[in-house]
Specification:
684 residues; alpha+beta; Rossmann fold; nine-stranded mixed beta sheet; chaperone; ATP binding; Chaperone protein HtpG
Length: 684
Amino acid sequence: MQTGKIGVTSENLFPVIKKFLYSDHDIFLREIVSNAVDATQKLKTLASKGEYSGDLSGAKVVVKLDKDAKTITVSDKGIGMTAEEVEKYINQIAFSGANEFLDKYKEDAHAIIGHFGLGFYSSFMVSEKVDVITKSYKDGAKAVKWSCTGSPEYTLEEVEKDGVGTDIVMHISEEEKGFLDDQKISEILNKYCKFLPIPVVFGKKKDWKDGQQVDTEEDNQVNDTTPAWTKAPADLKDEDYKNFYRQLYPFGEEPLFNIHLNVDYPFNLTGILYFPKIKSNFEVQKNKIQLYCNQVFVTDSVEGIVPEFLTLLHGVIDSPDIPLNVSRSYLQSDSNVKKISSHINKKVADRLHQLFKDNREDFEKKWDDLKIFIEYGMLTEEKFHDRAMNFFLLKNAENKYFTWEEYEKLVKENQTDKDNNTIYLYTTNVTEQYTFVEEAKNKGYDVLVLDDVLTPHLINKFEQQYTDKRFVRVDSDVVEHLIRKEDSAKEELSWEQKQELSPIFQAVCPEATDYSFIVDFKDLGESGSPMVITRNEFMRRMKDMSAMQGGMNFYGDMPENLSLVVNTSHPLVKTVLDAKDKKLGKNLEELTASLAVKKDEIAELEKAKEGKKDEEIPQADKEKLDTLNSELVKLEEEKRGQLTEFGKSNKLAKQMVDLALLANGLLKGADLDKFVKRSVELIK
């Protein structure tokens, strides 16, 4: 028996491995099984060159769990090692300056393993002792056993072993005994080894017998050695792609279509990406793309490795040019990764454009499930945005689809305002904004449906890109003002008149905390609605974006301001105004006259102050001005109070406000119940 020390200049290697790989401590099985697969493939390569004549037809990797012995064993029939090779590959770890290495990489678990070929040593994360029993394929080679307890000391001795290959026996430590569980091992193998190119066997397949599961004689192979992405696209049918998707996501909804990646220059890349159905609420999981390196699972968290919007896709990417076990920051800065990311970006855009050109009708049917993905890409990747303009679609309230150019031609003549801006009218909910949509259509306008959470961001981007185009939601103003063809010729109320009428209708607006009302008066014609509630386009859009971004935000924290537009030409509004004149006419006239006198006196005193310093103004004038201002405020409050009380008592005013609220889906609960009862009273 030979004893010795592993060739490192620091005794801190094993503690570092145990400590800094702890968050990924189940990765040890991937490393050991992957090594076994590599050893098997190397021997197959030698056999193909005539350098090995043994039978490899049944080559496989076997994982065995022995709960009594507290061991996990990984066995292969691969290339094996001689005693000299054990010394070279296991004892003399091939790097110089181990202390420098440990200092540099101790914070980065992934850099320790893989980047320096230390995959085997991940076994010590879970083991108190590791045995390597191996026999080389070379003629006359003797089997040897290497043992180590996780310290630099080891033993190496000759042993008997049937056949070539290697057994890695891991004696699981007490603190990691959770790995001595069949279900746990199955889960790890299914995660990391599901598509390895050499059969991986764990136990026997089970069958039901006498009400319980029993082992059969058939090996339980855990992996598919030739998954769909490793095959040529010409050899696969649509059903093959669908079956592979079900293999990846057994409970997933069937995807819309797929892209098969197959590149060998200037880098190697294979894979299959699927377009899932993405709903407008944007509730998606971004861990659906699985990244592989030579069929070895690396990660399913690919943010930063592929463009952000592509993380919404499902499927598999496999590239030997992506390092297997390095840090996320390394992957994000790696030149090959950047090239791969750019290629996938272009490939996705090309595939979508081709689908659009080949079968536009089918593409339109899938648009509502695709649009979130495409919009997300257009917002986050400029190159994708430029390509996507070839197949980006706009859908209108008639459920017709248009490219950007087609829609511009449709609306340019009729929906260009007095400032030569083309106005794109849109609704975010056809049902809730039905009245506004219909009024716009009755004016001969076309209305788009932009109903997902990315709408505010997307239309902002379009408006920045096309400065002569504006997006206006149909409920942001009365229909006459949505697209101003010319300055209004209708005579509007004076500011004083609005001041007098505003309290009547302000008094019957709901006292909500999440939105407030600004009352305005416009002549919408006798056939127009008596009252219309509109939402300021800018403020609403800012609030929508704030809601999506989350967290504290200036616009998001502000109450929503709604405009209650009172139609001064409507007969019902005139009825309320006539009732106001009948009940308050004399009082209002007297108050208005008193206010006018006070304002004139104040104006005279203010004029007398002009050009004078404060000490030059008589004290009597100062006191009189203060008194007049105080009396003016009281008179205005009295006038407003009378108008407010009249408004509160006027059922017709309240009914018209509630009708406007009802049309906007804002009348709920007790207010809705009162409206219904009041409606019955008014009908009687």
